């Protein structure tokens, strides 16, 4: 399990395993956001299996499947609502952490400076520069 801290309360990760969830809870996370569509993964680590294991570990679980290359405004809104409603630290995961970083940056447009939304994920190799115009467009609409 490789957790990459984007902010003090939002981190991303590549796919996690069921057995990682107790350790994630012990590390102080309270919310898991699953950005991985079930069609990409075996059912053993699909949404419902992860939800059951997360809840058994005392974590809140939100499913927000993001399809690579087809991010929707519903994905952005769902991520933003989950983030704003979280009672503590958040871990979002997908295949690599990239989609979880993208929907975070888009959902925070207007709440944080665009340069920050681009730079924070870039520390971990996630290229948000290609999303700069979309972030700025969303920020101007808020």
Describe this structure in words.
The chain is of the alpha/beta class and about 140 residues long. It has a single domain, classed as Protein-Tyrosine Phosphatase, Chain A (Alpha-Beta Complex). Helix content is about 40%, strand content about 15%. It contains six helices and five strands, in the order ββαβαβαβααα. Strands 1-2-5-3-4 form a five-stranded mixed β-sheet, with helices on both faces. Helix 2 links the parallel strand 3 and strand 4. The longest helix has 13 residues. It is globular. The relative contact order is 0.19. The mean pLDDT is about 95. This is TIGR01244 family phosphatase. It holds the Pfam family BLH_phosphatase. GO terms for molecular function: hydrolase activity.
Rg is: 14 Å
- The helix/strand order is EEHEHEHEHHH
**Approximately how much helix is present in the residues?**
40-55%
Which structural class should the secondary elements be placed in? alpha/beta
The H-level CATH homologous superfamily, spelled out, is Protein tyrosine phosphatase superfamily
Mean pLDDT: 93
Organism: Falsigemmobacter faecalis
GO molecular function, one term: hydrolase activity
Protein name: TIGR01244 family phosphatase
Domain Beta-lactamase hydrolase-like protein phosphatase-like: 3-110
């Amino acid at each position: 399990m490789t957790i990459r801290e984007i902010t003090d309360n939002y981190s991303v990760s590549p796919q996690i395993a069921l057995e990682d969830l107790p350790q994630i809870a012990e590390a102080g996370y309270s919310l898991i956001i699953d950005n991985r569509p079930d069609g990409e993964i075996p059912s053993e680590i699909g949404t419902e299996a992860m939800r059951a294991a997360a809840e058994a570990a005392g974590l809140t679980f939100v499913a927000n499947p993001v399809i690579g290359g087809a991010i929707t405004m519903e994905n952005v809104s769902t991520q933003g609502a989950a983030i704003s409603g979280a009672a503590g630290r958040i871990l979002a995961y997908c295949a690599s952490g990239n989609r979880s970083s993208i929907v975070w940056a888009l959902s925070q447009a207007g709440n944080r400076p665009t340069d920050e939304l681009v730079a924070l994920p870039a520390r971990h190799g996630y290229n948000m520069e290609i999303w700069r115009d979309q972030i700025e467009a969303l920020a101007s609409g808020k």
